[in-house]
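Quick illustration for those who missed Monday's session on complexes.
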Amino acid sequence: TLLIIDFGSQVTQLIARRLRELNVYCEIRPYQAVTMDMVRQLAPRAVIFSGGPDSVTREGSPRAPQEIFDYGVPILGICYGQQVMMTQLGGRVVSGEGTAEFGRAYVQPKTPLPLLDGWFEDGREQVWMSHGDHVAEIAPGFEVYGTSPGAPFAITADVSRHFYAVQFHPEVHHTPKGAKLYENFVRLAGFKGDWTMGAYREEAVARIREQVGDAKVICALSGGVDSSVAAALIHEAVGDQLTCVFVDHGLLRLNEADEVVAMFRDHMNLHVIHAQEQELFLGALEGVSDPETKRKTIGRLFIDVFQKYADQIDGARFLAQGTLYPDVIESVSFSGGPSVTIKSHHNVGGLPEKMGLKLVEPLRELFKDEVRALGRELGLPAHFIGRHPFPGPGLAIRCPGEITRDKLEILRKADAIYIDQIRKHGLYDEIWQAFAAILPMRTVGVMGDGRTYDYALALRAVTSVDGMTADYYPFSHDFLGETATRIINEVKGVNRVFYDCTSKPPGTIELE
Ligand code: XMP
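Prediction with xanthosine-5'-monophosphate bound:
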């Protein structure tokens, strides 16, 4: 393992990404949580200090445990991490006017250093700087290996102890040789780069077996990638001790429930309960048009239903969840702070305590694309793994205003045609998420020689990295025209189609 101590940089997760790309396993821990007991338990082979927003010159600013410098493993300090190293090892950092440097800078070599193998082939190297303070005096034992106009100590090292300190951010894109620097660092630390998905699968299976023993596990299968991969992995570990509950709330897409259940039952051999609760959900949603009421109604019923089925499984002691790494990192920079609820998200958060269940979360160490790789490794079909996200409340939030069975029927057909069009034009993988929504209004049209008074649809497609921000997808007019025509011709009850050109912000991805 490689330990990354997070001092609150906005880009700490990128360090982890760079290391995973080198097939090195790493864990991020906030500096407050790093004690020598914790370090000894994790037994890292190397440590990286991240950047951070504070100033080491401020009293009480974050530090690493002093004894970590005697622990005997290589340490790489980045930006604030560099300054922490210098301060704790006897150097001096100053802040003040004229020492700040933000953005592109160029480092010149001074003396060759194995950490910099592959650097300076064309003289200088571009790096990305973002610092207010700078090192005025390096710590005893350190020497300078690279300088920039604003940072005379841009790259320093104590080679005998394998301590390296850089002022810039090698993890960001704008430091083109940054990945090479990480590669050199992990090689110097003795990592073989043999952490693969195959290896992860084996380790994870062993860990699940140890945690679960011969107890039973239940899992709420949503058909999404995360819960599916978690279920497949747990099934590999404990076989029929796992029972999945697939709650069909009547708000799924065309044929979705049957496809998901068939795939898990027939293709993957999992024990799946198909909870057919359409009437319960649609009944409770009758006459409801407020978005938050819809979401809360669905969330509450989901928990009730899941609990009802779970209660029928004798001796269930564990609840499986597809929690991912970005959800669990106690990131220093993002923790805390009051935030406004834009939408009540659908999850089973409070369930484990209520039911006295322990959690099994086998994807806690993985990023989304790693979960996809693991899914492929476990034999889930590629088309399934690459599916666009689908929200827990399903079509309910794509049907602004009151939900009726007619509207859901129209929506299912139109959505299927839209997605078919996107696949036919080879655009599915370029788009992060695409769907149709049915608008709460009717408009007048003319078809054949008759007047129509039918529903209008909105089509939505966005590009995004994490769903937090998004841009609308720039379809060609031909594509939009062809798709609108197909939908209106093939779906009875629709006579108008709009394309939603709103990005997020100010819009959200879903309409409610
Ligand atoms: P918004 O509409 O908030 O959506 O921009 C961002 C992403 O989250 C999905 N989404 C949900 N996913 N439960 C989920 O599992 C929910 O309640 C929920 N609401 C929105 C949405 O589809 C998009 O990918």
